[in-house]
Design a protein that fits this description.
Elements: H1 2-14, H2 27-50, E1 54-63, E2 71-79, H3 81-101, H4 121-139, E3 150-152, E4 165-167, E5 170-171
Antiparallel strand pairs: 1-2, 2-5, 3-4
Helix pairs in contact: 2-3, 3-4
């Protein structure tokens, strides 16, 4: 949640264009945020490695500028290894933006017989994390009566299709209605 505060109160106001702006005296803050993201990513790796889950009672959540937020919700429910994989992928994608701004995300040369370069390590990590998340998402369909995010096979077809719903662990504050 400290990173969400950084995102809402510092990054969004200072990162309104395609380049990271560096207002005077803020370089140390960017470095601290990058270090926080690296710790989050490493902690997510541990959650995944040990197959952990956590039942979160309720945490207030705001995404966006305080005067006009994109989302105001309560986060609650069972957080699983799938949750950690998704959070890690989101964090790593933001880390990539930081790293690419300072040329710290080098692009590997093309593999033999190809003219397409490989993905930078952190982007490859995002790509494989999203694939792993999708595999885990489909492996365990959600039950809307249980506060755990996931794929709800509404029409019981056994396959992801237009009749289904993606349940998130974001709820309208004070209610059981999902956002």
């Amino acid at each position: 949640m400290l990173f969400v505060d950084d995102l809402n109160d510092f990054l969004l106001p200072n990162f309104r264009t395609a380049e990271i702006g560096v207002p005077p005296g803020t370089l140390d803050r960017y470095v601290a945020i990058l270090q926080r993201m690296e710790r989050i990513s490493a902690a997510a790796d541990e959650v995944v490695a040990f197959g952990c889950h956590f039942d979160l009672r309720s945490v207030p959540f705001r995404l966006g500028d305080a005067p006009d937020p994109l989302v105001v919700a309560e986060v609650r429910g069972r957080w699983t290894t799938r949750s950690a994989v998704l959070v890690r992928s989101i964090i790593d994608s933001i880390r990539y933006i930081f790293l690419s701004q300072v040329n710290a995300a080098p692009v590997p040369p093309p593999p033999p017989g190809s003219d397409l370069p490989g993905l930078p390590d952190v982007l490859e990590r995002v790509r494989s994390g999203i694939a792993e998340h999708d595999r885990l998402l489909l492996a365990e369909p959600a039950d809307p009566g249980v506060p755990q995010s996931g794929w709800w096979d509404r029409n019981r077809s056994g396959a992801v299709d237009a009749g289904d719903e993606l349940l998130l662990d974001l709820f309208e504050p004070g209610t059981n209605r999902r956002i």
